[in-house]
């Protein structure tokens, strides 16, 4: 757990050992306390070094212990940092790998910090719904000042060693032998006064505008983490460091921690943390998993189509140092596409340099542009990202079959077309996988990996490994129309449009859902994605009739309600941000700042009058239910159909792909927070009043679970044996 040995009789080295990341469990904290006590009492020891086993200092408090009420971790870790700091022997932290959360707090208790060049430090507690509650909010501002501490504590950002050195978090960065260097430093400082190294005793250096700085930070986090309480509590704790002596500040830190802990947010965010890791450990009903099926190595890749998605996918691959061949259909498009890729590559290189990667120019894999399919002969994987059109995609896959080596995996970035139909025209249906990236593909973390009927477990394993290599979260889903993310999203967007048809203001709908915590409201999201893309998707998937788009009074397709509004706006060349007008207007085509558009409001009131829609103004609470409960309901239907392995998969898709607020855990976790019987009752009521909206018809899985009360999400599967993955 925490071992203690003498080096050259004068330096004691204490090694934290709790695989895989040396998280501070109660047992490890106790062992550390014991080892420290021994080292402090041992008169032969003149200095102490604390390091972590297997090249990792410490990833912080053991998150798995957070929900065990009997554990009393906090005071121990806090007391430990005070014990380290106040003892008379110098203590040096040797930081390799990570010093995060409680791990960094432990290091801040030490008198000196030496870090390996590849180490990262940070206080990510805010991302877990809490705050650094073992003195981090009080010691860090005393070390690096208010502004930098606020940024780190409210964003949870991981800082690379060189940046940490510049900020003053660490004293030295070394390329190798971190522990040896820490021992050398410890020996050197034996006997020197420690006063200036005891952070709790230092004054906080405050700029004159400190209150303005805190207020600005508050405005920023309220916007960035709408509805979440932990970022605000973090700022309050830092404010305490400004105004109160250390011990009083610590009291405030503890109070705020207790306050947050009494809300649902820590549990929701910690659930989201483990859900991300859970979904990465895919298992197929056949039993195939990482453990049984090795991924094939991907040394080279090709991307077909360099539009919005293709260019981002090229960047993702290049960032992972995978050489890419980028192919377009003609010279003009190749020229446009290559310019887009090169400009993105330049931007990424700059970003990496700013992060301290001086070698950034060499750290992106090479990209080659071509019109010649023959060049794809030897690549290990092809990712197709051409228009969403089945005929075109089949033509391309047929062609690829004849060109690519037999071991090459052929992937499609389709947003929801049938993978099996695409596979059917190839010579290797088992090697066809859906790799559904999210826009912008080089930034968004989510990758839906779509399992077709013929897809082999090796292909799945390889695609899931590729997701990891690209720094993305791969979520395995089944081959249903629109897959999982968009299948739920399309219903949500429709619900929002129906509300507008019924006389509600789109700005109010957006605002309400943003206040709930979504990254953006449905109308802003539609404008960003492109109304033409969405309308095309509606038509392609049989959700609307293209020929009726400009007509009136036909609002049903196969007895299901649909809206023609998207089609009508497209006919008026209102495609969203790209054309400078959609649901909102923008300062120019490609502009980002959405402004309310009087033209649209006039148009909508005419449209409303002509079409005789019922008027139904609804409250904010009902907007949330009306729009979000269809996501939850369809989520249960996805589980019923076996198109996702569990509710965690749906939550991860929404948290990482659609800007769902993590402090509510994800849509399925949120359903359990609201209470399944409540969600069911509301859906029943809405469906009774709107039988032409099938998205509102409660799923039987939801009904069965609600009949059992409100069982915790973790128990859903065990309670309902009938539901199983068909992946
Ligand atoms: C008077 C009475 C008053 C009482 C007051 C009580 C006060 C209580 C005070 C509480 C004290 C608070 C202390 C502290 O401030 C709180 C914290 O430290 S919270 C933890 C902060 N740390 C993090 O958020 C780090 C999260 N981890 C990561 O970012 C990454 O895991 C990593 C470390 C960068 C490693 O990344 P990868 O290499 O990609 O690997 P994985 O992510 O897959 O992780 C591997 C494996 O490790 C598990 N794991 C990671 N971190 C933790 C952790 N902190 N605790 C437990 N487990 C962790 C992860 O789940 C993986 O395991 P698997 O899920 O695969 O089994
Ligand atoms: N845009 C999104 O937000 C998004 C998100 C996820 C998935 N998708 C899917 O990704 C795919 C691409 O979407 P997009 O938005 O990037 O489209 P896009 O229109 O921006 O780009 C498509 C590109 O494909 C090229 N192309 C067409 N035919 C080709 C051919 N025969 N050979 C080579 N290149 C050809 C076009 O020239 C164009 O540059 C679609 O299947 C879409 O559904 C899009």
TrEMBL record:
Compartments (UniProt record): Peroxisome
CDD domains: crotonase-like
Record pathway: Lipid metabolism; fatty acid beta-oxidation
Keywords, in A-Z order: Fatty acid metabolism, Isomerase, Lipid metabolism, Lyase, Multifunctional enzyme, NAD, Oxidoreductase, Peroxisome
Single GO molecular function: delta(3)-delta(2)-enoyl-CoA isomerase activity
Swiss-Prot/TrEMBL GO biological process terms: fatty acid beta-oxidation
Residues of the 3-hydroxyacyl-CoA dehydrogenase C-terminal domain: 483-586, 627-712
InterPro entries linked to this entry: 3-OHacyl-CoA_DH_NAD-bd, 3HC_DH_C, 6-PGluconate_DH-like_C_sf, ClpP/crotonase-like_dom_sf, Enoyl-CoA_hyd/isom_CS, Enoyl-CoA_hydra/iso, NAD(P)-bd_dom_sf
Catalytic activity: (3E,5Z)-tetradecadienoyl-CoA = (2E,5Z)-tetradecadienoyl-CoA; (2S,3S)-3-hydroxy-2-methylbutanoyl-CoA = (2E)-2-methylbut-2-enoyl-CoA + H2O; (3S)-hydroxyhexanoyl-CoA = (2E)-hexenoyl-CoA + H2O; (3E)-hexenoyl-CoA = (2E)-hexenoyl-CoA
GO cellular component terms given for this protein: peroxisome
EC number: 1.1.1.35, 4.2.1.17, 5.3.3.8
A Pfam family that the UniProt record links to this protein: 3HCDH
Residue span(s) of domain 3-hydroxyacyl-CoA dehydrogenase NAD binding: 301-479
Predominant subcellular localization, coarse grouping: other
Oligomer status and interactors: Monomer.
PANTHER family: 3-HYDROXYACYL-COA DEHYROGENASE, PEROXISOMAL BIFUNCTIONAL ENZYME
Record family assignment: In the C-terminal section; belongs to the 3-hydroxyacyl-CoA dehydrogenase family. Belongs to the enoyl-CoA hydratase/isomerase family.
Name under which the protein is recorded: Peroxisomal bifunctional enzyme
Organism of this sequence: Geotrypetes seraphini (Gaboon caecilian)
Gene that this sequence comes from: EHHADH
């Amino acid at each position: 757990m925490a071992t203690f040995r003498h080096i050259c009789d004068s330096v004691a080295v204490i090694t934290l050992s709790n695989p895989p990341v040396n998280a501070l469990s109660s047992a490890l904290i106790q062992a550390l306390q014991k080892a420290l006590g021994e080292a402090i009492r041992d008169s032969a020891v003149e200095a102490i070094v604390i390091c972590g086993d297997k090249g990792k200092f410490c990833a912080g408090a053991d998150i798995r212990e957070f929900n065990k009420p009997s554990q009393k971790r906090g005071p121990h870790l806090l007391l430990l940092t005070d014990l380290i700091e106040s003892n008379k022997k110098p203590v040096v932290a040797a930081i390799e790998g990570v010093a995060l959360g409680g791990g960094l707090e432990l290091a801040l208790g030490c008198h000196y910090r030496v870090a390996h060049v590849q180490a990262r430090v940070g206080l990510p507690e805010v991302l877990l719904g809490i705050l650094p509650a073992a003195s981090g909010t009080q010691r860090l501002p005393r070390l690096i000042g208010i502004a930098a501490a606020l940024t780190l504590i409210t964003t949870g950002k991981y800082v690379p060693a060189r940046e940490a050195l510049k900020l003053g978090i660490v004293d030295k960065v070394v390329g190798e032998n971190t522990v040896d260097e820490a021992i050398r430093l410890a020996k050197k400082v034996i006997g020197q006064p420690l006063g200036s190294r005891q952070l709790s005793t230092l004054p906080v250096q405050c700029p004159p505008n400190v209150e303005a700085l805190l207020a600005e930070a508050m405005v920023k986090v309220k916007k960035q983490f709408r509805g979440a309480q932990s970022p605000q509590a973090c700022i309050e704790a830092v404010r305490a460091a400004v105004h109160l002596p250390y011990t009083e500040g610590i009291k405030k830190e503890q109070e705020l921690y207790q306050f947050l802990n009494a809300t649902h947010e820590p549990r929701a965010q910690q659930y989201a943390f483990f859900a991300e890791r859970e979904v990465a450990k895919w298992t197929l009903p056949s039993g195939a998993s990482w453990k049984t099926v090795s991924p094939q190595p991907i040394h080279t890749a090709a991307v077909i189509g360099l539009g919005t998605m293709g260019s981002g996918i090229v960047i993702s691959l290049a960032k992972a140092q995978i050489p890419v061949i980028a192919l377009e259909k003609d010279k003009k498009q190749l020229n446009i596409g290559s310019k887009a890729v090169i400009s993105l590559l330049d931007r990424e290189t700059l970003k990496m340099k700013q992060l301290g990667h001086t070698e950034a120019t060499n750290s992106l894999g090479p990209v080659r542009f071509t019109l010649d399919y023959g060049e794809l002969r030897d690549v290990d994987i092809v990712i197709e990202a051409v228009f969403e059109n089945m005929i075109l995609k089949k033509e391309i896959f047929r062609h690829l079959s004849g060109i690519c080596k037999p071991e090459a995996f052929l992937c499609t970035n389709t947003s929801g077309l049938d993978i099996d139909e695409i596979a059917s025209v190839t010579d290797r249906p088992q090697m066809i996988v859906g790799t559904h990236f999210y826009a912008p593909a080089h930034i968004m973390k989510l990758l839906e990996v779509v399992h077709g009927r013929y897809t082999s477990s090796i292909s799945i394993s390889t695609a899931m490994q590729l997701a990891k290599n690209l720094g993305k979260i791969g979520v395995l889903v089944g081959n249903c129309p629109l897959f999982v993310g968009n299948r739920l999203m399309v219903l949500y967007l429709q619900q929002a449009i129906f509300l507008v048809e019924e006389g509600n203001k789109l700005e109010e709908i957006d605002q309400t859902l943003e206040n709930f915590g979504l990254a953006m409201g449905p109308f802003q999201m539609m404008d960003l994605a492109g109304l033409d893309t969405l309308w095309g998707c509606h038509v392609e998937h049989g959700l609307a009739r293209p020929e009726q788009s400009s007509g009136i009074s036909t609002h049903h397709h196969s007895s299901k309600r649909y809206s023609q509004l998207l089609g009508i706006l497209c006919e008026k060349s209102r495609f969203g941000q790209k054309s400078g007008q959609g649901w909102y207007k923008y300062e120019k085509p490609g502009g980002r700042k959405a402004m309310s558009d009087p033209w649209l409001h006039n148009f909508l009131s005419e449209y409303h009058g002509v079409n005789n829609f019922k008027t139904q103004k609804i409250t904010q609470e009902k907007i949330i239910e009306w729009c979000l409960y269809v996501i939850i309901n369809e989520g249960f239907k996805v589980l019923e159909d076996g198109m996702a392995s569990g509710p965690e998969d749906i939550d991860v898709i929404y948290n990482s792909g659609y800007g769902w607020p993590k402090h509510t855990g994800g849509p399925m976790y949120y359903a359990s927070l609201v209470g399944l019987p409540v969600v069911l009752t509301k859906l029943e009521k809405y469906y009774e009043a709107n039988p032409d909206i099938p998205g509102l018809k409660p799923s039987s899985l939801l009904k069965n679970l609600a009949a059992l009360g409100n069982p915790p999400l973790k128990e859903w599967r065990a309670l309902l044996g009938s539901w199983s993955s068909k992946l």
